[in-house]
Structures are given as C-alpha cells and as structure tokens.
Amino acid sequence: MKRLLLFLLFLFASEAMAAAQTSRYGIPSSNGSGAVQLPTSTVAQLPTCDVSHAGNIRVVTDATTPTYNGALVGGGAVVVTVLCTGSAWKSM
Fold first, then answer.
1. DSSP codes, 27-81
2. What CA–CA distance (Å, rounded) separates 36 from 44?
C-alpha cells in the first residue's frame, strides 16, 4: 500500500511539474487525453533559430503556402508544424 501511495504521489507531482514548466518554457504538454500540445505562435513570434534551438518543434498559425522543408513565410492563414534546423525554421 505504501508503494502504491508513493507511486501515485510521484505521478501527480510529475504532471504538476510538467504543467508548470509548460507555461514558463513552452515545453509541450498533455491535455489529459494523451495528446501532446505543441507551443503555437505566429512566424514573427518564433525565437531565433540557432544551434541552441536546433531540433525544436512548434506550430505556427500564419504560414503562407508552406511546403515540406521549405522556407517559412508568415502573413497567411495556414497552420503548420515547423522545425528549427539550427539555422532556419522549416515547414514540416
């Protein structure tokens, strides 16, 4: 019984810590159904894509005619997932 309580405490603490970090760092979070919610922004609001952000994945809400692995242009109305390559944000 004691192990079960410790396990449940660990689960609740982990979820609370993840939720707290999401708002501070833009880390993906779970909506409770098991789905992952990626941070969203406009193209202009994306952080500078450099080596420190390489591999980051986000969702932009204003892409203009995105193509796979193509240059990212804002000002449109297309929602698309983007990846920081270490030098530029690319559509996925």
1. --EE-SSS-EE--EE-TTTSPP-SGGGTT-EEEEEEESS--TTPBP--SS-EEEE
2. 23
What is the three-class DSSP state of 83? Answer: strand
Q: The tokens 């450099």 sit on which residue? A: 50
Q: What torsion do the CA atoms of 26, 31, 36, 38 make, to the nearest 10 degrees?
A: -30
Judge contact between 69 and 91, C-beta under 8 A: yes
65-92 pLDDT, tens per residue? 889 998 889 999 999 999 999 999 999 8
pTM: 0.63
What are the φ/ψ torsions at residue 53 (nearest 5 degrees)?
A: -105, 0
Burial, 69: exposed, middle or buried (Cβ in 10 Å; 0-12, 13-18, 19+)? exposed
Instruction: Give the separation between CA 4 and CA 87, rounded to whole angstroms.
Output: 47
Domain boundaries, the chain: 1-37, 38-92
